[in-house]
Task: structure prediction
Amino acid sequence: VSGKNSSIVLDNVIVEDVEFPIYAEGGSMKITNSHLTSEFICDYINVKGGQAEIKSNFFYGRSAENTDAIDLDNVTNGIVQGNWIYDFSGHNSDGIDIGEISENINISGNLIYHSKDKGISIGQNSTVNIFENIIIGCNTGIAVKDNSTADIFNNTFYFNDTTVSCFEKNSGQGGGHVDIVNSIFSTNLEKPVFADAFSTYSVRYSLSDTYSLDGIGNLLMDPQFIDPSIYNLELSPNS
Result:
């Protein structure tokens, strides 16, 4: 499915094993309640410019490299909400990739499992709000880079290598800048939060069970999930 400077609305569709599943340039894109998978090197949904609303879809990844579930470039006021994103296991593959001066992108209520590279990648001077997501088993849970900013709140992160990473990827572009509030960092294999010399971050009222977090109201303790072995990350009554 492709369109340029047009309105695309898709609901309850199945897209399987095509080389360019869904592409929109300009105009608007809305896709809901759909299932997507492909064996090709591609972005399952790629939107360049215009507006995008992507809600309640299932993305089943494969082993192809350089493949993202959702890629938004130069999008304003985009919504990525309530999607299930599974197993994008190829090299340099992300669950959600935001770039090219995208503005005010709201990423909320998504479940992202086992992205080989990043669960959510933010770059190229973009601004994003990330809230109420669960991100599990990624090399990097969220990456913010190259003069991009993200407000990260009410998220749960489990079994990621580095959970939030802020850095300069392209020389001279500057680092990433994040504010993290009310989030859980559990079973990190490396660091809950990393920032290079070009980046800044703050963490408030959040919990880690592996490394202490600098900042107001942070806790170092077990969050007491009901059953993390089956990824049931609801909190037990005694938490």
